[in-house]
Fold each of these.
Amino acid sequence: MKIINRLKIVLHLGCFLVLFSVLAQEDKINVEESAAVFLEEYSDNFQEQFFEGLKQKGIENYDKAIKYFLKCKEIDAESTVVSHELAKVYLLNKEYINAQNYALEALNKEPENLWYLYTLVTAMQSQGGTVGSLTQSMPYENIILRENLGKIYYSQKNYKGALAALEGIKKSKKQQDLYTKIEEAVKKQEEEKTSVSYTVTNTVSTTRTKTDNGVQAYKARLKGLISIKAYSIIKQVATEAIEQYPLQPYFYYTQAYALNQTKRYREAIAILEVSLDYLVDDISLANKIYKELANGYTGLNQTSRANMYLRKIKPGF
């Protein structure tokens, strides 16, 4: 039972899909696995191997994690949950072909699972390709799958790809609304391209300048709110910032910071893990994220995990 409870926490966090906050208010995306039901069907040996795989993945021992998940695969070759975990850890280990194959395997068994499709899209993009080359290898005629692909591309601001994913399917009202929203985004994007100006020394997009100014404005506002400990407002502003600029790790950090302060530790941890995916060469922000991860795990009484992230903090930044 102790193993099951711990796995409930890990699976819940691993499946919390913050990336699609752009659409969250309109469409509640259910990507959670029922950990309790899933695990009750398996032996103690399977549970031990599965949990150890998650643990090793969490501490970035990807080769060991793969070995444990493959042992689970030997016990149950049909488990989509194990296939997806293998896909994710192969992706983290930069073994993109293996990630692609296991993500495709999981998706073929559950074609309407958005999270499985997102992992497949990521694996293909990591190789410089798209899922368009795999349409013969998956149930591409599935309308929900196509809708999910449209959502993924929309969240990545790949509006033309999103339109192509939805083209030719009989749309429900919800899907038609998404299609219309994407068309409007394409139109706006084209208008912004025409407004680009260039300096004598280098080409500088006014759109890029506008984006940079917007990011800095949100950062300044959030730093001011943090200084006065306005946690509920911080969460609202950070959520708004993520919707506008979904690739900025600082906004995920501030949202998670506010959640930690209000003792919503599990949500905070999930968001912080997403922020690490977008973090590039910013040791100071990395330290802040690790500190909040440690605070979150301390709040959940998971001391070993908290200490793991405290050890990641680099002094002097």
Amino acid sequence: MPSSRIMIVEDERQTVDTLRDLFEQYGYETEVALNKNVAMNILQERKMDVLIISEMVQDIPGIEIMYDIRKTNKFLPIIMICDQKSKRIESSLMKAGANIVLSKPLDPIIAVQTIDNLLKMKYIAENIKPKKRKTSLKKK
């Protein structure tokens, strides 16, 4: 069974290296996009299972990157990473389409558990088929 693929959209090299090392240690494959254009190209070429987007990537708000990704992939799980914890920011990111919002500094255990949980939910959603509805009504 192939491992799950995580794309990290972040331009801060230390964060990229930390996340890549962490996720690969747990058996995930990682792709890194240092800007929006690279992220969009990777998503066109390869299937990703989870996306992690920083709040800002090369002076472009992460929310804008997420909007563009949501136009082509409505169901890809997205984790947004923020520099500060704020209920207002978290709420606006969730309304915009983020599945989860995490604050820096990232706790490695929480980051891995978050990925695991998102992948479980994605797997369940992809494999549950709706029940067939009866189309004919019985006459009394």
